Amino acid sequence: MEYIVNTLGNLVEQTAFMNLTWGNFIMIGVACVFLYLAIAKGFEPLLLTPIAFGMLLVNIYPDIMAEGGLLHYFYLLDEWAILPSLIFMGVGAMTDFGPLIANPKSFLLGAAAQFGIFAAYLGAMAMGFSDKAAAAISIIGGADGPTSIFLASKLEQTAIMGPIAVAAYSYMSLVPIIQPPIMKLLTTEEERKIKMEQLRPVSKLEKILFPVIITVIVSLILPTTAPLVGMLMLGNLFRESGVVRQLTDTASNALMYIVVILLGTSVGATTSAEAFLNWDTIKIVVLGLVAFAFGTAAGVLFGKLMCKMTGGKINPLIGSAGVSAVPMAARVSQKVGAEADPTNFLLMHAMGPNVAGVIGTAVAAGTFMAIFGVK
Asked: What is the CA radius of gyration of the chain?
């Protein structure tokens, strides 16, 4: 009987129930909310589902992120900036850069949307974060999860990488909720109804030369951005060259989804109650939201300026797509424009600023690395 009692006692002590704290229960609840948003509401399920499940796992079994645990090795690939770079290659392979090539003015809208990054940087400094931590936090404003992880690792801010990554990916997923109120507040119904001229056709030669030229120019000016911009452009060159269809298919499908699984679960697993439930995390989440809102607003306001300068030929709504959430932000521009006029088609016009925003966020990260002397 004593043997049975001791055995049962050992089994009970080994269960997770004996070690769960109230913080763990809170984070498990947050994970369930994320799963609901991903599965029931369809808010970027490819991102939120693995993130939420990683969050669930680590708050039940913390050792899964300890050295020797499964997700610890996944997370090392984040720290080494391998997974963010591979994500960029997949994005490049899936994305048509034609709208940006056809309308180079889109670069200005993409650049304007980066204003939120530098606004958040100043805000983070004012809230007591170190200069490097503030820089890592501010990239959330670009709604670019891979770049946020990349910069945090390069600036050695691994202690706050988890909250930064979760905030960035959460806001990427919530683009359809966060952006429309800002866009409608800053534009009139007449502006939202503006129909833009059809983009000119882009030749195959232009599409092939574009990733090569951008890689050379950006890498010469900011060499530290080469891993991100280089992989983005390599993926796009696979797509546009037309001679490596197998590589294009692999980069945009199998490899992309494998990387999303590894990155999503490892990012979610950084949200243990001990690491996540603190004032710094709350500050990061708030600063990220402010940065994202500022970036969206700056893009729309610059779009209004371009609308005035072109005599009403540019719909300001496409400026909101200057954040890096590809193609979610462009779809939101289309949706808000269609609400004002169901015959208005802005998606392709919005893809220009959207792609420019991806490049712009990588450039902003490279600028911070140059400022702090990171190689």
From this structure: 22
* Helix or strand holding residue 134 (H, E): helix 131-138
Cα distances (Å, whole numbers) of residue 296 to 2, 186, 202: 66, 10, 28
Paired tokens of 30? 């947050």
- Segment 4-17 shows an average pLDDT of 63
- The Cα 135–Cα 335 span in angstroms is 32
DSSP code of 288? H
Q: Judge contact between 128 and 245, C-beta under 8 A.
A: no
Distance of CA 172 to the CA centre of its chain: 5
Q: For residue 273, what are its two tokens?
A: 């109650």
Q: Residue 246 and residue 237: Cα distance in Å, rounded?
A: 13
Q: What is the DSSP letter of 253?
A: I
- CA–CA separation, 221 and 303 (whole Å): 27
pTM tops 0.90 = no
Residue 323: CA count within 13 A, CB half-sphere: 40
Residues 6 or more apart whose CB falls under 8 angstroms from that of 221 comprise none
Q: Which long-range contacts (CB under 8 A, 24 or more apart) does 182-186 make?
A: 182/293, 182/296, 182/297, 182/300, 182/320, 183/296, 183/300, 183/317, 183/320, 183/332, 183/333, 183/336, 184/336, 186/297, 186/300, 186/301, 186/304, 186/316
Residue among 86, 294, 310 at smallest CA distance from 178: 294
The least confident of 215-219, 279-283, 300-304, 350-354 is 279-283
Higher pLDDT, 8 or 71: 71
Q: Give strand ranges (E) for 248-292.
A: none
